[in-house]
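Page 42, continued from yesterday. The earlier attempt failed because a stray header line got pasted into the input along with the sequence. Redoing it now with the clean sequence only.
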Amino acid sequence: MQDSYVHKGKRKILVDYLRNKIGINDEKVLSAINMVPRHLFLESVFEDFAYEDRAFPILAHQTISHPSTVAEQTALLELKEKEKVLEIGTGCGYQTAVLVALNATVYTIERQKELHEFAQKKLRELRLRPKFQSFGDGFLGLPTFAPFDKILVTCGAEVLPTELLHQLKIGGKMVIPLGKTDEQILMRFTKKSEREFEREEFGAYKFVPMLNDTNH
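This time it went through. Structure tokens are written below.
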């Protein structure tokens, strides 16, 4: 698959939809979404629908999130250029690519081996490569590279992974869906001190579950 003028036109329509219908007003996030060819992260059978606001199945029985969810989660990070971001759940690499397109310094973890390898290959092809890409357990984070300015969890956790909060800088933010498998609340935690966090809620979503360990 190539990134044609038709695909670029559909991306522009998607960005207009995210701005005008969903209410995403972070122009840097919209610009990054306009830059990343989402159809290249999907199976070719979904190519014609890649720029609709829909989730699709990907490898390892996982899903690629709705573009609106990617835009909303990314906007909630309030990213500044070159900030260190830890992404939990690389998936097919689409969200990772959006973060890299925002000029963030991205560290990302994936527990599914085939997804990790797919994303590595795809991001290399697109020259949207994170600083560090890891196959491992997202609950553990990446303490070697901590602290991080921002942490983005792209899967739903039933309980708050406190180890990740420890890896945030003071003043840093973590965006994470929290709750039972059938529905989570999108949350943002801002680290005020080593023991104090501000907590905000941003509505109900449905994400694939966050799981321990790795899957070869």
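Notes: The helical segments are 5-22, 27-35, 67-77, 94-101, 113-126, 162-166.
Reminder to self: strip header lines before submitting.
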